[in-house]
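$ ./design --mode recover --in tokens.txt
reading tokens...
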């Protein structure tokens, strides 16, 4: 029951090591109302942060260590504790 923060697919499809594609075409998302800027995941981030995990289906970036901990129940989300999910 991670639905609000992390889609179950992200955990189900979690790879053993962080997914850090270098030649993937990262989709651009528009941010801002007055000044609209386009942002996307930047592959150079992977050189700085080895724990970054990119999920291609969700176009989302996560901490690989935290995802592993969630997947193997070493870590629970605060909402789970509050709602006893
Ligand atoms: Zn983490």
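writing sequence...
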């Amino acid at each position: 029951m991670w639905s609000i923060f992390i889609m179950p697919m992200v955990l189900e499809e979690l790879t053993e090591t962080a997914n850090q594609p270098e030649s993937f075409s990262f989709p651009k998302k528009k941010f801002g109302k007055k000044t609209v800027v386009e942002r996307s995941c930047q592959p150079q981030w992977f050189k700085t942060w080895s724990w970054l995990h990119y999920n291609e289906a969700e176009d989302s970036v996560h901490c690989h260590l935290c995802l592993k901990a969630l997947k193997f129940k070493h870590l629970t989300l605060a909402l789970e504790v509050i709602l006893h999910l």
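exit 0
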